[in-house]
From TrEMBL, chain A:
Domain of life: Bacteria
InterPro entries: ApeP-like_dehydratase (IPR016776), HotDog_dom_sf (IPR029069)
UniProt source species: Dyadobacter beijingensis
Protein name per Swiss-Prot or TrEMBL: 3-hydroxymyristoyl/3-hydroxydecanoyl-(Acyl carrier protein) dehydratase
One Pfam family matching this protein: ApeP-like
TrEMBL record, chain B:
InterPro entries referenced in this protein's UniProt entry, alphabetically: ACP-like_sf, PP-bd_ACP
Organism, scientific name: Dyadobacter beijingensis
Top-level taxon of origin: Bacteria
Name of the protein in its database record: Acyl carrier protein
A Pfam family annotated for this UniProt entry: PP-binding
Residue ranges occupied by any Carrier domain in the UniProt entry: 11-86
Length: 139, 88
């Protein structure tokens, strides 16, 4: 694990109870990978399952943590990012409480401070959700 | 210029560009004229410019950056930018 749970908030602006990424598995400019184990008290759990919005937020926080880590590694300060748009969402299934979600995000394009990324979340080898996000990073 | 493995003339590149822009941004193809505003005609906000960059990359294999859009007002300006990138 590149960044463990107890250190993740050094790289993202989110705070409990809205931290939706446990750790960063790997991060390069070409590929981000993260993990989240769905806790019963997660605010985006409903009827025992982590909601689609939770998976999308988890994906966005994967980007935030990865950009933050990479910026820090290059001597910069982590920047604030926002979800600008969500598109091409395909939901296969929702993970239950206790499941570990692994998410892989690939940056596709960058135009100035806007990044288009493609992400896919899975659990135990089963695809949960895929989508594209436009992430706007503050300058 | 090659698109879909078929060699295209510059005029064909423009016509092809008008086709995919009108389809993607759901605007009348006839409104995509050299003298018309790129931003206003396609109703582009800052996020839409990313879609435009993706479209140009996927259809014409041209990579555009934010810097490239400085000074681009009309479709005519935009076509010239693409032409420079394609070295046509």
């Amino acid at each position: 694990m590149l960044i463990e749970k107890d250190a993740i908030t050094r790289y993202i602006p989110h705070r409990a109870p809205f931290v939706m990424v446990d750790g960063l598995v790997s991060a390069t400019r070409e590929r981000f990978e993260s993990e989240l184990t769905v806790a019963a008290d997660n605010v985006l759990v409903q009827n025992g399952f982590f909601l689609e919005t939770g998976l999308i937020e988890h994906m966005a926080q994967t980007c935030a943590a990865s950009f933050g880590y990479l910026d820090s590694a290059e001597g910069g300060e982590p920047k604030i990012g926002f979800i600008g748009a969500v598109s091409k969402v395909v939901v296969h299934e929702l993970p239950p409480v206790g499941a570990t979600v692994r998410t892989v995000v690939t940056p596709l394009h960058q135009l100035g401070n806007i990044y288009l990324v493609k992400g896919e979340s899975s659990s135990d080898g089963r695809i949960l959700l895929g989508c594209e996000l436009k992430i706007v990073v503050s300058e | 210029m090659y698109a879909n493995d078929v060699k295209m003339s510059w005029e064909e590149v423009i016509e092809e560009t008008r086709d995919f822009l009108s389809e993607e941004f759901e605007v009348d193809r006839d409104s995509i004229l050299p003298e018309n505003s790129l931003k206003d005609t396609l109703d582009l906000d800052s996020l839409d410019y990313v879609d435009l960059v993706v479209l140009i990359d996927e259809n014409l294999n041209v990579k555009l950056t934010g810097e490239d859009f400085k000074g681009i007002v009309t479709f005519g300006d935009f076509y010239q930018l693409i032409r420079q990138k394609l070295a046509l």
